[in-house]
């Protein structure tokens, strides 16, 4: 399927949705209204859960905040619901920003537990505020008016709901395909990789959280003026898990999952309410929640990714266009060769009582390839983590390009021009090769959430895509840019990490075992690539076990053993060193 | 607030806290062995209370039907998975464990329910009946996804909790119950009267904490459970089956939940859905213990009980808001003191 | 007949193949070794052989195809692994770690007591530290404990994954030196090592693994003089 057919399909869908009130029963339109409203909150959950990896059980709290805001403004104070919308969005966004600032440092399940806690706390608050009708809620809420037309009829508000939903989907779609959207998609799977590319992971998480809350707020606003009555029960944690279920059953990794899930669960609910009394008269109400929960559990057990991937597998693949040639992104000027670029002085790292790195000093000169070798467990990877800021030093000093970076954050070190790869490859297996490399351009580009969502970043995006494509070609992975990274053999995944690091236009490239898992010819190709990078005055620091590879490539070697520096020098002298032979062969040769 | 009122609130808080201790210990136990945050804990406690109440009224408790239904379902799941693994030889043993034993418990209660039973027997029958619930739920719900992330397991737990609330309404009806007090004795400490019930609750909490301690410290099975929690792969390489360790943990968890349900029923009116809030408050205690440490968990749970007691005196309408708001700083503190491994996070 | 025969074995992570159609055998009462650089797939091979990772191909142990059995069943049959990461129970005492090693025959109290004494005889250092938490031990002591814990299961076949990892050469030797005496007691061993020379000096038969394939195999004393191996392991012509 080409992008053009895709656009045609999208237009056809919009036309169908617009025609629905003329074709369908009023009752069906009412259902469609609720599907649209729930799809909005589910869309937020897709961004939060499926994309950003943060599971929230408390999303109804934001829906509730918005609902109570607009109900108070319109039903109690007597202003327009549109004023209610402003308050709803501002308040849900502000509460999310405050809660997020406190709780988003939490990891994984701790974060989710906190969402239950504040979800319940906010729910109980609604039921206890005198001015908001306590547990009986607020009734006679006015409808939304557009001009002089009050949207009382379900056919009328239908257009508002679906226009908002389609708009939100379009913005979200653009955003995910932009610079920050890629960072958002990369959040799952840990912070260290994204931070090593200069991404402020916390900021991205917070923004995602606020966006999801605003979508919940929008949903709450529409919900309030659709049903025209609200009470606390509609925003308790039970409902929260229902919306989460919509997102996850539909497919939490896909924007369309929100609509599919909302549609499916809403229709199912309707069917259950129709048929359960026939099967189990008298206890239908109780069984309803049991049925949903059972379905949800089954989905989580059997189809964690939801329905959308199954549908997508039946459709023809979307044909991507290879990035076209564009003006290259601006490049850094490399420092003149032969200067001290990185200086490590008496670095120390202790884990409890164990010294993983003990009093190690060395220098990396600009334009050289320095090999760091040593037996397993010698502390080489720890050393790398200290240099790149992934771990704080216990003692000692690190200077990069004349700047003290001992206490600098990983992200700042990345911005200063240090790019790295990881011993345990850290890629996003569900993103394409091109998107993985595009992540590398993050620190060189600027587009933010708004320009991404509104599509104002097209020029920069074009340049970044071209740059990523160039780096993919350079490392020899240019033939299938739209393959998923997880489908590559392990050796090529390492090479892909190098392309990502190169896309950051680094001054110093730090490679952790780049040749592990490569075959002979691939090793030779990698060696040639690294040599050509040296020609361009790029400085390289690498850890490697394959001695043949190291000896034929590097200018100098530092040998580590048991956390200390054993010796350093050119390859020939290191190879001849008796201590090195002892460390490697475990005895006299 | 006078000193007398403070003392009364403190006694009250310690009693509530002691109930939370029992449930929180169960949370820690099950999380440590299986990585499951077993949200439905409170539900099981509430179901036990409802069971005792039904037996008092000489009615067949809804738990009988619930256990029977779960047993049949678990048996089906187990038999299918054994057939798929092509090990039909293990079916008879599975039938005994998942079908015969739970049905025997259900049958015993069903047969005796109509008679006037002494209180001790009612309690024992309720515990026997509640014991299989958590292991059966484990088999049906968690076992098929034992390798999933903590987060996914938590999501499943939440869904399971709502399923149980629905089943609770179906099997027990909407009425609240309060059971006979276990003892009418009161003790006087200085100017404060302490009901015997409170002494029993605290005593039970101490007793079960001690038993858990002895189990983990002095039996090889206890150590095997602990080992599974510390290092699952290491345990498997010693021939310790994580599933079996999980089943034992769930059995113990059921027992703890049951005991707490029996102790709370004479003090609080319990509805089919009362379990969630009780469980969640106990969970705050478990989080204070980092879901790892038994002693800190016990202390934390008592703290939650005290906080709740004093909060309800200050502002009863907002007591839940206060109790759950405290969870956020606790989580933050825990999150900073726990070292997270990157490899644990889900791709 | 071989006690252990791994036949046509492949291990994949997603679409990436870590081990490609490898066959390895261990004769009864002998030590076989698989050597090779980091990332060659050695650890995947052992983890799949014990059943921790899914694999295609067959594992024949003592004449029986055990490919479908789970890890615990294999362990109960006397087929044990000392993993690369040791996987000790860090917060538990040395003695508790050892006692859990005998979990697969936990009813044989008298025999377990004897095994425990034997382990303490073999590694007096563990005796000295038996009340200490396993997590506080030094690297060498950890390796001893991991080995001792596996021996408590009274294995017939023991697989060791990089016993030299992070250890000084002297300690590596000390640990490798205990292996032949285990063989005399009827234990067969499959040793995976990066420290090629030490491994080949200890073993009877060797396999060389590179990027998922066995590229060479033969009697250990022949491999040790193979010029190609010397090149790979020290680079150049050292």
TrEMBL record, chain A:
<dbReference type="InterPro" id="IPR043428">
    <property type="entry name" value="LivM-like"/>
</dbReference>
<feature type="transmembrane region" description="Helical">
    <location>
        <begin position="109"/>
        <end position="126"/>
    </location>
</feature>
<dbReference type="GO" id="GO:0005524">
    <property type="term" value="F:ATP binding"/>
</dbReference>
<feature type="transmembrane region" description="Helical">
    <location>
        <begin position="85"/>
        <end position="102"/>
    </location>
</feature>
<dbReference type="GO" id="GO:0016887">
    <property type="term" value="F:ATP hydrolysis activity"/>
</dbReference>
<feature type="transmembrane region" description="Helical">
    <location>
        <begin position="202"/>
        <end position="223"/>
    </location>
</feature>
<dbReference type="InterPro" id="IPR003439">
    <property type="entry name" value="ABC_transporter-like_ATP-bd"/>
</dbReference>
<dbReference type="InterPro" id="IPR032823">
    <property type="entry name" value="BCA_ABC_TP_C"/>
</dbReference>
<dbReference type="Pfam" id="PF12399">
    <property type="entry name" value="BCA_ABC_TP_C"/>
</dbReference>
<dbReference type="Pfam" id="PF02653">
    <property type="entry name" value="BPD_transp_2"/>
</dbReference>
<feature type="transmembrane region" description="Helical">
    <location>
        <begin position="34"/>
        <end position="54"/>
    </location>
</feature>
<dbReference type="InterPro" id="IPR027417">
    <property type="entry name" value="P-loop_NTPase"/>
</dbReference>
<protein>
    <submittedName>
        <fullName>Branched-chain amino acid transport system permease protein</fullName>
    </submittedName>
</protein>
<dbReference type="Pfam" id="PF00005">
    <property type="entry name" value="ABC_tran"/>
</dbReference>
<dbReference type="GO" id="GO:0015658">
    <property type="term" value="F:branched-chain amino acid transmembrane transporter activity"/>
</dbReference>
Automatic annotation (TrEMBL), chain B:
<feature type="transmembrane region" description="Helical">
    <location>
        <begin position="6"/>
        <end position="30"/>
    </location>
</feature>
<keyword id="KW-0472">Membrane</keyword>
<dbReference type="GO" id="GO:0005886">
    <property type="term" value="C:plasma membrane"/>
</dbReference>
<dbReference type="GO" id="GO:0006865">
    <property type="term" value="P:amino acid transport"/>
</dbReference>
<feature type="transmembrane region" description="Helical">
    <location>
        <begin position="192"/>
        <end position="216"/>
    </location>
</feature>
<dbReference type="Pfam" id="PF02653">
    <property type="entry name" value="BPD_transp_2"/>
</dbReference>
<dbReference type="InterPro" id="IPR001851">
    <property type="entry name" value="ABC_transp_permease"/>
</dbReference>
<feature type="transmembrane region" description="Helical">
    <location>
        <begin position="119"/>
        <end position="137"/>
    </location>
</feature>
<keyword id="KW-1133">Transmembrane helix</keyword>
<feature type="transmembrane region" description="Helical">
    <location>
        <begin position="248"/>
        <end position="271"/>
    </location>
</feature>
<feature type="transmembrane region" description="Helical">
    <location>
        <begin position="95"/>
        <end position="113"/>
    </location>
</feature>
<feature type="transmembrane region" description="Helical">
    <location>
        <begin position="283"/>
        <end position="306"/>
    </location>
</feature>
<keyword id="KW-0029">Amino-acid transport</keyword>
<keyword id="KW-0813">Transport</keyword>
<feature type="transmembrane region" description="Helical">
    <location>
        <begin position="318"/>
        <end position="336"/>
    </location>
</feature>
Automatic annotation (TrEMBL), chain C:
<keyword id="KW-0813">Transport</keyword>
<keyword id="KW-0067">ATP-binding</keyword>
<dbReference type="InterPro" id="IPR052156">
    <property type="entry name" value="BCAA_Transport_ATP-bd_LivF"/>
</dbReference>
<dbReference type="InterPro" id="IPR027417">
    <property type="entry name" value="P-loop_NTPase"/>
</dbReference>
<dbReference type="GO" id="GO:0015807">
    <property type="term" value="P:L-amino acid transport"/>
</dbReference>
<dbReference type="GO" id="GO:0015658">
    <property type="term" value="F:branched-chain amino acid transmembrane transporter activity"/>
</dbReference>
<keyword id="KW-0547">Nucleotide-binding</keyword>
<dbReference type="Pfam" id="PF00005">
    <property type="entry name" value="ABC_tran"/>
</dbReference>
<dbReference type="InterPro" id="IPR003593">
    <property type="entry name" value="AAA+_ATPase"/>
</dbReference>
<comment type="similarity">
    <text>Belongs to the ABC transporter superfamily.</text>
</comment>
<dbReference type="InterPro" id="IPR003439">
    <property type="entry name" value="ABC_transporter-like_ATP-bd"/>
</dbReference>
<feature type="domain" description="ABC transporter">
    <location>
        <begin position="4"/>
        <end position="236"/>
    </location>
</feature>
<dbReference type="GO" id="GO:0005524">
    <property type="term" value="F:ATP binding"/>
</dbReference>
<protein>
    <submittedName>
        <fullName>Amino acid/amide ABC transporter ATP-binding protein 2 (HAAT family)</fullName>
    </submittedName>
</protein>
<keyword id="KW-0029">Amino-acid transport</keyword>
